[in-house]
Amino acid sequence: MQPHLTTEDISSILKGQHLNTMKTAQLTSQIKYVSLSDDEGTFGLMILQTSNPKIREIHSEEEFVQCYDEFSSLFSK
């Protein structure tokens, strides 16, 4: 069972996007979030670390939640 992330957890993780350095958060044993920035702004990458890895680019809290839910459901199967 994957841990439930609260709105506060997500906001705290996404706040790392406003830094000019790369920050990584290991959300679960199989899901990692990396915050990044480039000339176009801030964004993040959510990475599913399994034998069939997946990576999604994240630009909003809504995308973060959708991707986390999707990756969590893939991992729990």
Structural class by sheet pairing and helices: alpha+beta
- What kind of sheet is the major sheet? 4 strands, antiparallel
Distance between the amino and carboxyl termini = 10 Å
| Unreliable segments of 5+ consecutive residues | none
Radius of gyration: 12 Å
- Percentage of residues in helical conformation: 25-40%
**What gross morphology would you assign?**
globular
Summed over residues and divided by their number, the pLDDT gives a mean of: 82
Total number of domains: 1
**DSSP strand content:** 25-35%
**DSSP strand tally:** 4
Strand order of the largest sheet: 1-2-3-4
User: What order do the helices and strands follow?
Assistant: HEEEEH
**How large is the count of helical segments?**
2
Write up what this structure looks like.
The mean pLDDT is 82. Strand 1 and strand 2 form a beta hairpin. With 77 residues, the chain is of the alpha+beta class. The chain has one domain. A four-stranded antiparallel β-sheet has the order 1-2-3-4, covered by helices on one side. The longest helix is centred in the last third of the chain and has 16 residues. The protein starts with 6 loop residues before the first helix and ends with a helix. It is 32% helix and 32% strand. It is built from two helices and four strands.
